[in-house]
């Protein structure tokens, strides 16, 4: 990246990881100015090949998913199962401030890349580790993806749906991106201490724990046994129906948020054209409501169905009641507020296409937004990085001949 006094300029990060969680953490740190080198096996990061899942073009020349989590990095292709490739990786780590990986523990130990081995050689190094379920316990070695460790076992898939219906549809990246930012916060804290003390540390973040943290309010509340917290439940028995989405006359959904039920009650029912319910002891205060939840739920459903979305939006805006339209992704890509708040940027591809990509959700006031380069092709910078480590042209050629390093051609769609 060009030098613009970004917070992490001068910091070097080596990433030995694939798919989403760990790479997206490194991508965020690259946005902050770090020199991030992605170490990729000749078999390639599997995220490069998920096009059919996402309905986008095959190949490397327009890979929005890969670019989302790998923009602004460099990439070296090494076969670390070959002694020469592993030696090159260790030389690279020696030059780094941070090492990030999601390789499973057994493989790391086999190659001497586990933290206990690495910290002996590089005591100042900050080591970032992403796991599915954590580093202790009977299931620590299970493979972890956000569909399984985050959504399912982490308490979301089994709770966050109306019990009269099927569980929600999960999508890739939700848990991974949570993990990425959690890991980034820990790495930056460890890096700060290392800069003062010369002592590194290992920062571990799991999909499982991240999900538990995300559902913590209701998870903790569930131990008291109240029926309103024993998810999954029917919408009709939610303790505060003001926090439910409602369907409008034209078939759209509007989500409300009024956690302070008693404070919002009169204003809410008035905005819903039911001023006759102001102060109604069946539904106010909230303690009285609990014996009349289904009746009040039906009143709100019927009221919402009387007007189209546009009219309700204006009414709730005028009444200063927190609401938001349940947008589709097509609508979100055109959302004026999202563009104004710098949530998106345009990526121009070498095949001539332009696509909208998403920025990480941290904005600095006195640091300009980064200009984005696509994610690197597999091994795009292999020769450049090996040369910077002192390898000669002949040595690099020899490594490529034995398969310890590679610079494969980009895959065409």
Describe this structure in words.
The chain is an alpha/beta fold and 413 residues long. The protein is built from 18 helices and 12 strands. It has helices at residues 21-31, 51-54, 64-70, 83-94, 105-111, 115-121, 146-152, 174-197, 207-214, 216-222, 261-271, 286-289, 293-304, 309-318, 329-332, 336-340, 382-388, 393-401, and strands at residues 12-16, 35-40, 74-78, 98-101, 126-131, 201-206, 245-247, 253-256, 323-325, 344-348, 354-358, 405-406. The strands form 3 sheets. Strands 6-5-4-1-2-3-12 form a 7-stranded mixed beta sheet, sandwiched between helices. Strands 7-8-9 form a 3-stranded antiparallel beta sheet. Helix 1 packs across helix 8 and helix 7 runs parallel beside helix 9. The longest helix has 24 residues, at 174-197. The protein is elongated, with a radius of gyration of 26 Å. The chain starts with 11 loop residues before the first strand and ends in a 7-residue tail after the last strand. The mean pLDDT is 95.
């Amino acid at each position: 990246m060009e030098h613009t006094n970004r917070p992490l300029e001068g910091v070097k990060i080596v990433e030995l990881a694939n798919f989403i969680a760990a790479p997206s953490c490194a991508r965020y740190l690259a946005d902050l100015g770090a020199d991030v080198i992605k170490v990729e096996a000749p078999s390639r990061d599997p995220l490069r090949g998920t096009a059919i899942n996402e309905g986008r073009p095959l190949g490397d020349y327009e890979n929005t998913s890969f670019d989302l989590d790998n923009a602004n990095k460099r990439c070296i292709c090494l076969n670390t199962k070959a002694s020469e490739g592993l030696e090159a990786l260790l030389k690279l780590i020696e030059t780094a401030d941070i090492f990030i990986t999601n390789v499973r523990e057994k493989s790391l130990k086999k190659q001497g890349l586990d933290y206990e081995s690495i910290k002996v050689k590089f005591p100042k190094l900050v080591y970032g580790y992403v796991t599915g379920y954590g580093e202790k316990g009977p299931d620590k070695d299970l493979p972890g993806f956000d569909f399984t460790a985050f959504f399912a076992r982490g308490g979301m898939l089994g709770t966050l749906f109306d019990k009269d219906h099927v569980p929600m549809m999960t999508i890739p990246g939700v848990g991974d991106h949570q993990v990425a930012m959690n890991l980034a916060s820990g790495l930056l804290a460890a890096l700060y201490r290392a800069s003062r003390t010369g002592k590194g540390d290992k920062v571990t973040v799991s999909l499982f724990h991240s999900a538990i943290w995300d559902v913590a309010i209701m998870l903790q509340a569930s131990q008291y046994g109240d029926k309103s917290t024993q998810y999954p439940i029917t919408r009709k028995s939610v303790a505060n129906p003001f926090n439910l989405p409602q369907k409008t006359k034209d078939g759209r959904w509007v989500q409300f948020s009024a956690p302070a039920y008693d404070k919002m009650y009169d204003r809410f029912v008035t905005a819903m054209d039911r001023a006759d319910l102001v102060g109604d002891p069946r539904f106010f205060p909230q303690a009285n409501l609990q014996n009349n939840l289904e009746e009040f739920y039906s009143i709100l459903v019927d009221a919402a169905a009387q007007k189209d979305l546009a009219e309700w939006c204006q009414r709730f805006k005028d009444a200063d009641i927190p609401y938001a339209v349940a947008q589709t992704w097509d609508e979100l890509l055109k959302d004026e507020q999202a563009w104004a708040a710098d949530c998106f940027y345009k990526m121009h591809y070498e095949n001539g296409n332009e696509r909208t990509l998403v920025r990480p959700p941290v904005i600095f006031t006195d640091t300009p937004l980064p200009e984005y380069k696509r994610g690197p092709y597999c091994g795009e910078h292999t020769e450049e990085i090996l040369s910077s480590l002192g390898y000669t042209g002949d040595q690099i050629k020899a490594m490529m001949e034995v398969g310890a390093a590679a610079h494969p051609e980009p895959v065409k769609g």
